[in-house]
Design brief:
Mean pLDDT: 96
Distance between the termini: 52 Å
Strand content: 15-25%
Low-confidence stretches: none
Strand order of the largest sheet: 6-7-8-14
């Protein structure tokens, strides 16, 4: 029923095709693949290479699967990475019942789906440059509103950014996050109401935190995902500046750790980089202010199948490899405000590279 987007993407399957029966596609490390398909949907995998085996009933299917007894097979089932666990429990149990050893396919998926080609890097860089420009246009929009005494809301900023996306030819999978004051304390805040409706969301008041989080790509390309934070006043109070500087410092520590690892030939995991950010944040903000991982993989999907910078939520022990692309987005959240900075990095010719830029070093202010 096409409930497994990852496999559809990996195999290039038509998401609108009929798929009401279980099928299995076995790709050996060497030799010909094997397609196990139901008799009434025997052509469901015709676009793929391999030998076809047809089953009719459950016992027939079991006989086909029993032939793989004793083999070790990677499946989309990982106890730590929920996003890559698209095989249902019943199917996984059925496979294992025939003496088949299963292991996580997470690293295979990373190498197949989330290693950027030179063309992918170029499209990612182009999208990142566009997003940085749009962030600054959005901040100019806010500054002009205050200078001219015009009342604007979170929704007004959101609509302005949507217009810029359209003008630039960018596409996205969800509206950006624009949040002010206590709304910024919610990492997944969404402006209420219908797009294009004037006055949606909270009014942008003077002397308040304003969070921007935007992500998009060019059609057929690789996503970029960035976050900036502002203070709608001339000078931010010390506590606000300190909180912002805490997330900037955590971000910069991750960048240094990645660069150091690759320059010295050390392999490094997403979990290790997350721990670097957490150590910095915990020295500056309360533990309860840290509510999410440090970053996620990026590819044709904003939250891609590659390495996540995560040691707590869904610990990711996969290594960063050539072509990896990921966000670095530490955040600190409080009852009255929230602070998140976000940049993207990719590995190109063994060098960790920050895309777009220049990155945010201090709060935007009026």
């Amino acid at each position: 029923h096409h409930r497994d987007r990852i496999t559809d993407d990996l195999l290039g399957l038509n998401e609108s095709s009929l798929s009401s029966r279980r099928w299995f596609y076995w790709v050996p490390s060497s030799g010909n693949p094997v397609k196990i398909v139901h008799t009434i949907e025997s052509g469901s995998l015709d676009a793929l290479p391999g030998e076809r085996e047809i089953y009719t009933g459950f016992d027939d299917l079991c006989e086909r699967l029993r032939a793989f007894s004793g083999k070790k097979i990677a499946m989309l089932s990982d106890p730590r990475l929920a996003v890559l666990s698209t095989v249902d429990a019943a199917t996984a149990d059925l496979v294992k019942s025939f003496g088949i050893e299963t292991t996580s396919a997470a690293s295979l998926v990373q190498r197949i789906a989330s290693v950027l080609s030179p063309e992918g890097i170029a499209s990612h860089e182009k999208a990142a440059a566009a997003l940085y420009a749009i962030i600054h246009k959005a901040w100019d929009f806010v500054r002009r509103a205050f200078a001219e005494g015009i009342v604007i809301t979170e929704g007004d900023i959101l609509d302005m950014i949507a217009d810029e996306f359209s003008r630039e030819g960018l596409v996205t999978d969800h509206p950006p996050i624009i949040a002010t004051a206590e709304n910024a304390g919610n990492p997944h805040y969404a402006v209420p109401g219908t797009a294009g409706t004037p006055g949606r969301g909270r009014k942008i008041e003077r002397d308040a935190v304003l969070q921007f989080d935007i992500w998009a790509k060019y059609p057929g390309g690789i996503f970029a995902d960035i976050s900036w934070v502002a203070w709608t006043g001339a000078t931010a109070p010390t506590v606000v500046a300190d909180r912002a500087n805490a997330v900037f410092a955590a971000r910069d520590a991750v960048v240094r750790a990645a660069m150091t690892a690759f320059s010295t030939g050390k392999k490094i995991t997403g979990a290790e980089l997350d721990s670097v950010a957490r150590e910095v944040l915990l020295s500056r903000v309360p533990r309860g202010a840290i509510r999410h991982r440090t970053g996620h993989g990026i590819d044709v999907n904003c939250h891609g199948s590659g390495v996540n910078l995560d040691s707590v939520e869904f610990p990711d022990g996969r290594f960063l490899i050539e072509g990896s692309c990921f966000s670095i987005e530490p955040g600190a959240y409080f009852d009255d405000s929230g602070f998140r900075t976000e940049i993207d990095m990719y590995i190109n010719n063994g060098i960790p590279t920050v895309s777009g830029g220049p990155i945010q070093r201090e709060l935007l202010t009026l």
